[in-house]
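Support case: copper (II) ion complex. Customer-provided input:
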Amino acid sequence: MRTLTIRPLAKFGLLAGCLMLAGVTFAVAQENSPSLAQVVALDECEPSSFNAKLGPDFCKNVTLGAFTTFDNLFAEAAAGTPDPNWDFEPDTLRINQGTILSVVDQGGEPHTFTEVAHFGGGFVDGLNHGEATVPECIGGFSNLAVAKTRILQGSHIEITGLSKGEHRFECCIHPWMRVTVEVKGRGEK
Ligand SMILES: [Cu+2]
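Agent response - structure generated as follows:
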């Protein structure tokens, strides 16, 4: 009789212990779960002129008439006044280590979000305004390392595991699209 009454109690105690442990683990996981910081890629590509040069569906019609034609984009870049509506927003970010950077392309055409040691030219000479292609962009999409940083229209990529310190990202197509990310160490203000 005795053993019968003790057993269920012991079982209950064990179960309660497990639940408490699970609760603690959950709370810790919540506290450490990385937050999310968003960067938006924007452009105003004009579909008919872009697609005539680059193929169907390269530029999707998303900007409701706020368009820059293919030739104008190159003319503006050549003049040293690249179109400001091809842009990553925000331009600078300060995030905690562990924060996930989510980069979403809300423009009409593809971009890249490529980490570079130093800002410079991309892989399309006509958009570089004389700046040399940075090593990280060389080869364009035929370079797998560059292709992996591509963001297609309406999609996003997530950058994780950024080390403490300053990181620079640019678009390898439109090299004036630049973002500086400062990653703070844990507990740093
Ligand atoms: Cu771009």
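The CA atoms of residues 30 and 130 lie 49 Å apart.

Case will auto-close in a few days if no follow-up is received.
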